[in-house]
Design goal:
Elements: E1 2-6, H1 11-26, E2 30-35, H2 40-44, E3 49-52, H3 57-61, H4 71-82, H5 86-96, E4 101-104, H6 110-118, E5 122-126, H7 150-171, H8 173-184, H9 191-196, E6 204-206, E7 223-225, H10 240-247, E8 253-255, H11 265-279, E9 283-286, E10 302-305, H12 310-313, E11 319-322, H13 326-335, E12 339-341, H14 348-358, H15 372-382, H16 385-399, H17 403-417
Parallel strand pairs: 1-2, 1-4, 2-3, 4-5, 5-6, 6-7, 8-9, 8-11, 9-10, 11-12
Length: 418
């Protein structure tokens, strides 16, 4: 079977799909990944075929994401950076032509229209729980007040998740209909089509652990929670100064915010360095699209690192402070490393709350509320014996899961069912 995986977003959105693609290839399928040109080397170095789409995730995530902390602001951001034009549809059509099936990330939702035009089946391949549930909602900006009755709480959760997907899709409907007519030769979309996207009617695999978000009783066999899709570092060797730093003292704290651009990266770096000093901990400032500063003179107890595979680095550290992206949260969980989660926007607060509920992280501190004192307090909590023991236990359970293998089996079963 020839499968195209369509994705968009940051490296944390790309890497799990490479892992999934490798699992499908091992099972005998031909795999192509269509996505952001920035991740072509990541895909091709693992021997998978790549097709570039005209999107620029780095530009999107450079837009001070901490200001996108309301649903309206988030919707404007999505519309500005991920509304598909005709060139996007043309690139997707070229990438998917000749495929027998497609797996589609949410930000790459136009691929569902291309699959319709080509007459091939598709499955949602999601890193967040898009199928609505009454038990939780990643789309809500915070926890619901405790005084809200359970039956009303469930309805709010269900409708907020449903609204998040519907508003996102409908905000781009005009551009989608233009692409359907001009590129795909299809009629305009029907409102009911958008109502079904992300519903129980949509076959979907979810690339996260059931320990973090279990399958919901109201879901159907169309929705499968498989476990995380991990891509390991292939025998990565650390630079000499990192190896030396790790050998010179107690395990350090890693601090990195992945793809999140910060409005004042130097101020953020200074805050982090001071919090580490107050708690007497050594630190590694990890780069990425959201690098922390760059020109500051660092104390001897802190080093800056451009990049390092999480699967190699995190088991050698005391904790990680991060933004709560799905990929980084997954890596910390598997490593058995406590997290301090500083959400910027989107689903990050949800993952911070889930990690806190598991007992592997203090309560998340949203970026706008982060102070030196709050970060220092959270770092102290993260290195408590109770939290370290809980993180180690959760890590052992995550490492026993086979997320990619479960996902491959789910894809084959869902496609066989038609």
């Amino acid at each position: 079977m020839r499968v195209t995986i369509a994705t968009a977003g940051s490296r944390g959105d790309a890497q799990p799909y490479v892992a999934l693609g490798l699992g499908l290839r091992t099972a005998g399928h031909a795999v192509k990944i269509a996505g952001d040109p920035a991740f072509e080397p990541l895909v091709t170095e693992h021997g998978l075929e790549f097709a570039a789409l005209p999107i620029d995730g780095r530009a999107a995530f450079a837009e001070c994401p901490e200001h996108l902390d309301s649903p309206a602001a988030m919707l404007r951001w999505l519309k500005a950076h991920y509304t598909p034009d005709r060139a996007y549809f043309e690139a997707l059509l070229a990438a998917m032509r000749g495929s027998d099936a497609a797996l589609i990330a949410f930000l790459a939702f136009p691929a569902a229209h291309v699959a319709e035009a080509l007459g091939i089946p598709w499955i949602g391949a999601f890193l967040q729980p898009w199928t609505p549930s009454r038990a939780f909602s990643w789309a809500l900006p915070g926890r619901l007040p405790r005084w809200i009755p359970d039956n009303i709480r469930g309805e709010i959760n269900w409708w907020s998740s449903r609204s998040a997907s519907l508003l996102t899709l409908r905000a781009m409907r005009e551009a989608v209909d233009d692409g359907r007519r001009a590129v795909l030769g299809l009629p305009p979309t029907d409102v009911n089509e958008y109502a079904s996207f992300g519903s129980a009617d949509t076959p979907a695999i979810y690339g996260y652990s059931p320990l973090l978000v279990p399958e919901q009783p109201a879901w159907t066999p169309n929705q499968r929670v498989t476990g995380f899709w991990f891509l390991d570092g292939n025998g990565w060797r650390p630079p000499a100064r990192l190896a030396r730093f790790l050998d010179e003292g107690e395990p350090p704290v890693v601090v990195g915010f992945g793809s999140m651009g910060d409005c004042d990266a130097s101020e953020m770096a200074a805050l982090v360095i001071e919090a580490l000093a107050q708690t007497g901990q050594r630190g590694i400032l990890l780069g990425g699209w959201g690098a922390l500063g760059g020109n500051e003179k660092l104390p001897k107890t802190v080093i800056r690192l451009d990049e390092a595979p999480h699967d190699w680095l995190l088991p050698r550290t005391a904790a990680i402070a991060h933004h709560g992206g799905a990929g980084t949260t997954a890596a910390a969980l598997r490593a058995g490393t406590p997290s301090v989660i500083v959400p910027f926007f989107g689903d990050q607060r949800f993952w911070g709350q889930r990690a806190h509920a598991l007992g592997v992280a203090p309560a998340p501190i949203v970026r706008k509320q982060l102070t030196t004192a709050r970060l220092a307090d959270a770092l102290e909590r993260a290195r408590s014996s109770e939290m370290r023991a809980c993180a180690a236990s959760v890590g052992a359970q995550i490492r026993a899961e086979d997320g990619v293998g479960q996902a491959v089996r789910a894809v084959e079963e869902l496609l066989a069912r038609g």
